[in-house]
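Forgive a beginner's question, but might I ask you for the amino acids of a protein and the tokens describing how it folds?
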Amino acid sequence: MNQSPPETLGMDGSTSRKPQQIMSRPRSDHRPEEDNPGDEWQKGKHRQSPKITKEMQLRIPTGTKQNSAASHPPSTAVRSAELRVNDHAVINDRPGQINDISFTLEGLHLRGRKVSLVGVDVHTGQSHRCMVPDNTCVPIPTVVRSEFTLLDVTADGFVSLLTDDGQTKDDVKVPGGGLGRRMRATFGRGVDLMVTVVSAMDEEICVGYRENKGD
């Protein structure tokens, strides 16, 4: 049963009821004030660092290079934005030497940068072009140029070469086109020749020759 509040007697003899104090009970579902997500973003709590691979950490010094085998370790990959003219790179699945590099901006706010690579095939001399994002890792082939003494030109289209250790090498084909015809004709006249062989990506191609003057 509810009880009425007690009456009090005033100075003039009148009575009044004393207001009842209502005690508020703490809410059981009260939750502490949550942090403002914007403050956490400013504090860096939700900031995530980009994943950087070992290949992306590679850096190539500026300047030109004559041989990528000496510039990069074998079987490496380098960010496309770090490549330079005269570097070797795999372009369209072919080993090439870069002779032109350009950059373009794409995307809604022109924030996406792409790299255009133009290179010459180290084996065939053909030109190849590709366009990749600037954070893409491009494989770097190991390109090796070697010279051998020409011993013979076989009838089935191979050259017999003498290596530095005195062994014979018979698995390189005679170059096609005019280069192969001139080499056959020069060797047929009894001229001692040195043959240049380029090795890259498990492929060896004879790319030139010169007269062996004993130097």
About this structure: Residues 30-74 have pLDDT under 50 and may be disordered.
